Amino acid sequence: MPVTIKDVARLAGVSPATVSLVLSNKGQVSEDTKRRVLEAVQKLGYRPNVLAQNLVKGRTNTVLLCAFIREDRKLSTFYGELINSLLTAISLSGYYLQMVVKGEFFNGHPLDKREALLEIAKNRLFEGLVLLSHWPVQYAEVSDLVREKFPFVVVNQRVEGEGISYVDIDHYGGAKKAVEYLVHQGHVRIAHIRGPREHRHAEERYRAYLDALVEHGIPVRREYILEGDFRRLSGRRAMEELLAVRPLPTAVFCANDKMAIGALQVAKERGIRVHEDLTIFGFDGIEAVKYTDPPIPTVEQPLGELGKMAAEILVKQIQGGEGKRVILGCNLLLWDGFLVKGDGKGEKTQEGGRLR
Amino acid sequence: MPVTIKDVARLAGVSPATVSLVLSNKGQVSEDTKRRVLEAVQKLGYRPNVLAQNLVKGRTNTVLLCAFIREDRKLSTFYGELINSLLTAISLSGYYLQMVVKGEFFNGHPLDKREALLEIAKNRLFEGLVLLSHWPVQYAEVSDLVREKFPFVVVNQRVEGEGISYVDIDHYGGAKKAVEYLVHQGHVRIAHIRGPREHRHAEERYRAYLDALVEHGIPVRREYILEGDFRRLSGRRAMEELLAVRPLPTAVFCANDKMAIGALQVAKERGIRVHEDLTIFGFDGIEAVKYTDPPIPTVEQPLGELGKMAAEILVKQIQGGEGKRVILGCNLLLWDGFLVKGDGKGEKTQEGGRLR
DNA sequence: GTTTCAAGCTAAAACGTTTTAAGGAGTTTT
DNA sequence: AAAACTCCTTAAAACGTTTTAGCTTGAAAC
To answer: Which of B83, B179, B190, B248 has the fewest Cβ atoms nearer than 10 Å?
Structure first.
């Protein structure tokens, strides 16, 4: 039923080969023949079957974004911007993007990630793979891809080992910047609401907190370190605990913005003048911190950069180039009334909340 | 270089046809042969070339999400949740999702949407299309798809005409709910910060505002109607203007949350006790309204439902069923201290900001 | 009047599968 | 012993392209 190249050839009185040549502007075809072919194409409304083209060319111009995410989390919440920039950058390079989300389980069994990835590499549908994972990626899970020389890049995780490209964010550096900023502001009693222990990023931010204090000769106090689960409510609970500690801290560095928001709410309920008596600092750069009252200074994750860089690294590999490992630095996102006293690099002040 | 079905056949000492039969569990094959084939598959690490499978089967199990969005807007900002639910629902139905974003222009010329869509329908790469557009969709732009009987569904816009499926949100109904809620709360002097005139959704929300007032016998006052551009800053400006009007309104219904946030900021700066002296109401249900102080009640767009429904409608068409048109209702998102006095249906109170 | 050359076109193979009709080898029925 | 049936297997066509080597044809060169 659909019109094929043969139909066009017949109508134009030429062979399919000629039609193909005309359409791809190859070989030498007389002007007259060209015209006849083009007319036939027009009249029949012919479009090449891309499937067939792909098969014979062995290329699909398509890459896959494979996201391994816990079933209860949404891809959008955090990675919307990442996807956005990835899509843009990939398109600009002439590739298409297909997406698939996989959870921890498949048919009730733990998902065999290795198997799933190998499948992707071998089914010839994709020319490259962007691997996004909420939890750490093991070398063994991707070693097949390396062996097959299949172009891929891991995003938001680091995987050491021969032949693996990744692009990740410098959580340690970002957190350190934040704490050092607080130190330079004159804070000495700095508390930390950390994220879950099993979370690598939480761990890095926590290490940075410790290191920053130690390096500045500030004693680490056990009572100033609370643990949350990255959700707002746990930030509330932690802050409530913290407010029972004496002497009170003058600043709290929270491992993410959601918990910082919870902490802010509690502090305000207790009548504390936030940022005057107690500074609250977040991490992530989600939209909402701009509109709390007062806005919450935070460490901004360069999610847009992340996607762009991932695309760049992947495309380079597809086109035969070398892979690459990149760690992206974070900027501090500060607000009116926060003087930048850090190294002066990286910080930026955005338009945004100007409450009070 | 890649191992094909022929390699497997040779190693197993059978014909390619037999290998295919074994792998797809069709026809009758002796246990012994099955075992030999499976062993060969295993040993060679063979995976079928899906491209070839697709070509011969004429199916790809893939649908395309085509988003027409202004270049300066991000897909993620608003549609993250939509994409998320669409992806989930589509996967559950056994299809893959590919995404492409197109702007208003292509190669410097206005994009020929009709042409772009026809291309998609005919290149045989996709079995269906989800069409997401920021601006209205014309019948003529999709009539080719209808003629080709290509399964598609328009999301977030309504297109009347034979054979067109869409799923849209009831902006009029949502806005009306909001204004009626305010009326039932006893408000009479209700202002409206509307969205841009050329924006269909803004227009609908505006109409609902007018109708709600009229139906409740409340005079419409010209000075109470301001126009913004959906951005926060325009909400600020509008509120500043509004505060010069006498008598002051006791409530402001904003056409979206961003402007509501701007309005809230100004009101607070002027020392107005928001929600006591002046109620501010938003529209959209973005995350940030939960964390402003006070939180802003709003009309929640069922973006998740939107994606799910789109998937459902599309898949049904692909599988030979009929298309469908659906308008999804909105719920009010209210906060502590807001008593629900509406019709009691649809409203829901979410966990969230509890400031003050 | 051959030979040479270029221009224009095409036949056929290739890409890697699936599917179908038919073939061969036993086994059972008549 | 022929006929009928079952099982198992496969040859070959089909899917719709691209690509390459080679074939015509006519003109230019000798």
So the answer is: B248
DSSP letter at B124 equals S
Are A55 and A123 within 8 A, CB to CB? Answer: no
B21 touches strand C (CB under 7 A): yes
What are residue A20's phi and psi, to 5 degrees? -60, -45
The answer to whether A120 and B108 are in contact (CB under 8 A) is no
The answer for residues whose C-beta is within 8 angstroms of residue A262's C-beta and 6 or more apart is A231, A232, A233, A234, A235, A236, A237, A238, A239
Domains of chain B: 5-48 (1.10.260.40), 62-164+305-329 (3.40.50.2300), 171-297 (3.40.50.2300)
**Residue B96 to residue A91, Cβ atoms within 8 A:** no
Task: Tell me if chain B has a CB within 8 Å of the CB of A92.
Answer: no
Give the residue from A151, A183, A180, A185 showing the smallest Cα distance to A165. A151
User: Smallest CA–C1' separation from A9: which nucleotide?
Assistant: C10
Question: How far is it, in rounded angstroms, from Cα A154 to Cα A163?
Answer: 11
Q: Which residues pair with A63 in a beta bridge?
A: A97, A128
Q: Could you report the per-residue pLDDT of B260-309, keeping only the tens digit for each?
A: 999 999 999 999 999 999 999 999 999 999 999 999 999 999 999 999 99
B256-to-B177, B227, B236, B260 alpha-carbon distances in Å: 14, 12, 13, 6
A40 CB inside 7 Å of strand C? no
CA B1, distance to chain mean position in Å, is 44
B102 to chain A nearest CA, in Å?
10
pTM for this one? 0.91
Please answer yes or no on whether A91 and B83 come within 8 Å at the CB atom: no
Contact A83 B88 (CB under 8 A): no
Name the band, by pLDDT with cuts 50, 70 and 90, for residue B355.
Answer: very low
| Optimal mutation site among A76, A127, A130, interface B, most CBs of chain B within 10 A | A76
Contact yes or no for A141/A111 (Cβ under 8 A):
no
Which tokens in the block code for residue B303?
A: 């973006």
> B355, A269: Cβ pair inside 8 Å?
yes
Strands A152-155 and A128-133: parallel
pLDDT, tens digit (0-9, with 9 covering 90-100), for A78-111: 678 889 899 999 999 999 999 999 887 777 777 7
